[in-house]
Specification:
Strands 1, 2, 3, 4, 5, 6, 7, 8, 9 and 10 form a ten-stranded mixed sheet that branches. The radius of gyration is 20 Å and the shape is globular. It has 339 residues and is α/β, with parallel strands linked by helices. It contains 13 helices and ten strands. It folds into two domains: 212 residues, Spore Coat Polysaccharide Biosynthesis Protein SpsA, Chain A, CATH 3.90.550; 112 residues, no CATH class. Keywords: Glycosyltransferase, Transferase.
Length: 339
């Protein structure tokens, strides 16, 4: 049977939770290609991957590589993918089985009718440790449901309603055509993965289906606030690469251009807030450097940013300014889920 969807699972020391992730994806049967990418793990990740490959021939592929980081593992997945659609699922996350069946039916329909979309979006769930009520990110009101549309049919995306790796399934060729090249040994590249190909998306489809369970709450997770501050240079690198990689002035569709500006804006807010929250002279100097870099290299973005809500608030050093910065932090937290 021809594969419909390639799913890349970047794994680094994932022995304790990767089986559950793979098992939920195995519910897709022969329609799915599951690429377990062992990124130089030191534990039994590769052993488990090979066991799963042996037990599920033709569906699971165990791929070993020297450690390249999350971005390097995702790029390996894109290169190795054979299906027309591609998704990344992190090894500590999983998909809802019934929702996954619905997604595969949709993708199969696009392929068999010749009406392929470039981007399929579904909901994702913040599955936070200790939280009874799970937060679901939907795109209702921002996008029509169950329709093939162009960006001109998109409406306003609220803060925190951004398209993340968790919600996105790209047509594989779109990722390749976009020139996507994620940096190795760098965290937070999932923002680049989603952002860079957007101008190449001409047709998209949103289904109000709770597909992706985003597990959050481990102390060592990359989105833990303390961990993010310790890796702030990588956050800034991704922030700059997003702006360097796409000239927003050349994005033809006004709806997409506005969305991409807002996405880059919230990433810049996150970078700035983390630098402020760390409180060290070194990081406060990095915030000044970031703003100076924006002004010199992306003046179009910088002017809009400084005339908006967030830019001026992040430059205030008064008691009122601190209150404004807390509001910025809360907006960033709603987007990224750190706490």
């Amino acid at each position: 049977m021809k594969k419909i969807l390639s799913v890349a699972i970047p794994c680094y020391n994932s022995q304790d939770y990767m089986r559950h992730c793979v098992e939920t994806l195995l519910s897709g049967g022969d329609k799915v290609e599951i690429l377990i990418i062992d990124d130089g793990s030191k534990d039994d990740t590769l052993k488990i991957a090979k066991e799963l490959e042996k037990a599920n021939p033709g569906i699971v592929r165990a791929i070993h590589q020297e450690n390249k980081g999350h971005g390097g593992a995702v790029m390996t997945g894109i290169r190795e993918a054979t299906a027309p659609y591609f998704k990344v699922v992190d090894s500590d996350d999983w998909v809802g089985v019934e929702a996954f069946h619905h997604i595969l039916q949709l993708l199969d329909g696009f392929i068999t009718t010749g009406k392929e979309v470039d981007l399929l979006l579904a909901n994702y769930i913040y599955d936070k440790v200790g939280s009874r009520r799970k937060k679901v990110i939907r795109y209702t009101h921002a996008l029509p449901t169950d329709q093939v549309i162009g960006w001109d049919h998109a409406r306003h995306f609220k803060k925190g309603q951004y398209i993340l790796m968790h919600s996105a399934i790209y047509r594989t060729q779109v990722l390749r055509d976009s020139g996507l090249d994620l940096p190795e040994h760098t965290f937070y590249v999932d923002n680049l993965f989603v952002y860079k190909p957007l101008p190449y998306v001409k047709k998209l489809y949103y289904t109000d289906t709770d597909l992706y369970h985003y597990f959050i709450g481990r102390e060592d997770q990359s989105v833990n606030e303390k961990v993010m501050i310790s890796r702030i240079d990588q956050q800034i690198r991704v922030n700059k690469m997003m702006l360097d990689g796409t000239d927003l002035r050349k994005v033809e569709d006004a709806h997409l251009r506005k969305y991409m500006y807002n996405y880059a804006e919230i990433i810049t807010v996150i970078s700035s807030i983390l630098l402020i929250k760390s409180g060290t002279p070194e990081n406060l100097a990095k915030k000044k450097e970031l703003f100076a870099w924006l002004k010199e290299n992306h003046n179009y973005f910088y002017k809009k940013f400084m005339h908006g809500i967030f830019g001026p608030a992040l430059c205030l050093h008064t008691h009122f300014g601190r209150k404004c910065q807390i509001l910025c932090y809360n907006a960033a937290n709603r987007f990224f889920g750190f706490s």
